[in-house]
Amino acid sequence: MVLSGNDKSNVKGVFSKIGGHAEEYGAETLERMFCTYPQTKTYFPHFDLQHGSAQVKAHGKKVAGALIEAANHIDDIAGALSKLSDLHAQKLRVDPVNFKLLGQCFLVVVAIHHPSVLTPEVHASLDKFLCAVGNVLTAKYR
Amino acid sequence: MVHWSAEEKQLIASVWSKVNVEECGAEALARLLIVYPWTQRFFASFGNLSSPTAILGNPMVRAHGRKVLTSFGEAVKNLDNIKATYSKLSELHCEKLHVDPENFRLLGDILIIVLASHFARDFTPACQFAWQKLVSVVAHALARKYH
To answer: Which residue numbers delimit the Globin domain (chain A) (predicted)?
Structure first.
């Protein structure tokens, strides 16, 4: 799966339209993920996962930051997320299936807040991008 | 048998009552074909699927999308007996249509996104949970008779 020129510009377009809301959307993505897929909570036994949790907000900001970083370096996502990839392989070891669940929730959040941005073509590009990010983060697992 | 809480049933019914089945169905199927283009393999007879615009405007896609979502309505009406509701359709998808059940999961995920874009903040996390559960149960029921 390769990101075309169109995909890249679609993805950059999404993040520029999301603008300053990215951190807030990161938190909402996590909240929805914990709610919709309760098994994902098993990775956060040390967190307060209640609605409005400061820990979830802070973590959402990190997740959003990583997605923005990947979008800003979309020609070399592996390079941009190399340290995060190491972290996930060596320490976090989040099962690969969960990246798809996070991606689904991020798409839902974008659909909710910017339905007109998420045209079918942009939806396709963003889905591919999120897959690519997940692939990078799990690339060094074995 | 799947257990549905009273709240889940209410969330499902409330969203469904506001769904335009024709529009949502058409959009969901079109997005499936656009976002996951390999799913076009089942629709060779549908004519022009050469671009997102062609897919969105294709009358056969629209009609089939409506048909699929109308059938989904049967699950909403029969939450306590989804397995039986889809028994024959499951056999059909296996024996005649030869559709990999993974496609039911893909369509379910797409439907969630379409609902989110239409209902915005009303599509609360609790709503998303109930609907994600529903699409998962439907996908499972459609795959149940495969052999």
So the answer is: 2-142
Nearest CA in chain A to B108: A104
The answer to whether A78 and A139 have CB atoms below 8 angstroms apart is: yes
- Chain A residues in contact with B109 (beta carbon < 8 A): 104
Q: Chain A within 8 Å of B125 (Cβ-Cβ)?
A: yes
Structure tokens at B18: 């506001």
Residue B59: how many CB atoms within 10 A of its CB? 10
Please answer yes or no on whether B34 and A112 come within 8 Å at the CB atom: no
Architecture of domain A5-138: Orthogonal Bundle (1.10)
Q: What is the pLDDT of residues A65-114, one digit of tens each?
A: 999 999 999 999 999 999 999 999 999 989 999 999 999 999 999 999 99
pLDDT in tens, A2-43: 999 999 999 999 999 998 999 999 999 999 999 999 999 989
CB contact under 8 A, A120 and B117: no
Amino acid occupying residue B38? W
Yes or no: say if B100 and B36 are a contact pair by the CB < 8 Å rule: no
Domain spans, chain A: 5-138
